[in-house]
Amino acid sequence: MTRYLSLLLFLFSFNVFSAVSAWTDFTLDNGHVFIPVTIEGIESRAILDSGSQIDSINKAFIGKHELSFDKGPFVNIKGVHKVEKKRTYRNVTVDIFGSEFELDRLVESSLGHHTNGMLLGAGFFYNFIVQLDYPHKKMRLLTRDTVDMGEAANVKSVSQKGTGMPIAQIEIDGVSLWLLVDTGNAGTVLIDRRTASKVGLLDKVEGTSTSFGANGFGVNEVATSSLVKFGPYEIDNVKISFPAEGQKTNLESRYESLSRIKGKRVVGLIGYDLLKDFIVTLDYKYGKLHIILP
Fold first, then answer.
1. Residue pair 182/51 in contact by the 8 Å Cβ criterion
2. What is the pTM of this model?
3. What are 273-294's pLDDT values in tens digits?
4. Do 171 and 239 belong together in one domain?
């Protein structure tokens, strides 16, 4: 509860000064979007991950700086490849865009090098309309009184029942599919193997790649689709990944607390390779999405 109260206070402060924030530079690192943050007075960076229902702190960051936090309950976290029980922490002081607040129930996760301090998921995205200009590596935040996303949205999208996460409908080689809008997916569009068969990609496999998720890794096969329709755009020759035969995966979310998924069947993830050419405007709370070329 502390986390959401603090973020709402952050939003209130943002409303007082401006309805639209200034454009702020972000860093693109292997397809991941990073913003500067300060954690317990230590300068670091955070991954922005719209595919995560949780906020998390890097175990390597904690170890590097010998930090100690108030411990919260353990939670079960479902990644793409397996489920693990994770420790949570309370009352972690974080500064984002010059505003300081405390995060509660921050999940300890493995986020690579210790310079990756934390991951910001639903708790961040829910409060704002977030605009990511991928080509120019800039972002800004908008309050909902500045734009009617119901009118502006040009991609068929909704909030998934049961999770509240944003999902969008795209078309791959003539087949319409619902996928999670996942800024934390640094790779290609990822779909389940049954859907890949339905689309006709199993006979077009070009090779394999290793997929790293929240709790492990797995092997994916890669094929090239002839045409992907994404909102008003048609894109030729898009790489599509799907689990290799016998590989078990959970594709609704890479960082999702265990819950019963209802509503539309989500068969995969939209990732960086599909988003990288666009200015992406996402209203996480209402599941509205707009994309445009710069």
1. yes
2. 0.85
3. 999 999 999 999 999 999 999 9
4. yes
